[in-house]
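Before going further, learn to read the protein records used in this course. Taken together, the tokens spell out the fold as the letters spell out the chain. A record is reproduced here so that you can trace the correspondence yourselves:

***
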Amino acid sequence: MTTRLGFGAAPIGNLYREVSEEDARAVLEEAWAGGVRSYDTAPHYGLGLSERRLGAFLRERPRDSFRLSTKAGRLIVPNTGPRRGTDEAAGGFHVPDDHVRHWDPSAEGIRRGLDASLERLGMDRVDTLLLHDPDVYGLDEGLRQGLPALAGLREAGVVEEIGIGVNSVAAALRAVREGDLDVVMIAGRYTLLEQPAAEELLPLCRERGIRVLAAAVFNSGLLASDTPATAHYDYGPVPPALAERTERLRKVCARFDVPLAAAALRFPLRHPAVDQVVVGTAHPAELRADLRHLDMEIPAALWEALREEGLLS
């Protein structure tokens, strides 16, 4: 069993492309066979598809043999407005847009969202509940309402851990300072490519004993791709400056015979505040590669060379 790697279930919610039921099942089987026992999902991922697929898989396993997190703040409600046929433009997922996302960080909205997630998952509980992207709809409102709502669920014993899941370091910092969190999931902001979370967020989390989950450690696939021109960065096109920086990172790694993806996977785990990296894929071969990279010996000289090249702070 591995405790350093968590499975991020956005890709099996049809992120960027359609994924068959068989392929979604296959990558989950691969993760389980490789010892992965921590799984993260959200209503946002495929308008509930990710939760349904992940739940169907995990229900076949003893409940105490894995940890499960989902997110709250977005309700999935029927679409009563115009339709394009797919959620691709609105949310990035290749699923029918017969439902839409509705922001509601209130205590009632958080509880409704959790209940709906549990129904889709087919579970009686999740271990961790994260406030999802409050900065997208209004950080002040999201934190003012969402953090106390999560704390109330933890105090009532409904969930074991609460936290925040964001791409924004500023939003995560405010949540840590204003709430009583157990977990921070920061996506894409502490990676081999960029490390803005290192300045304040990670030291503060370590000081307060908050677990940090480093997600999107490949920056939406860029650091795991051999073709940066067709890869994604933050779920969109890759800026030319970051494509060039990625190639510089790749060349330094090649000098030490280390795949760029291996260095990218292992880098966040070097920080004492980071408890786990969370990676998402719908490809069994990629999941197998992640597991190999997790156990790969990375020479200390590689990190020093990256610093000398000005690629690590």
In short: The mean pLDDT is 96. The longest strand covers residues 67-72.
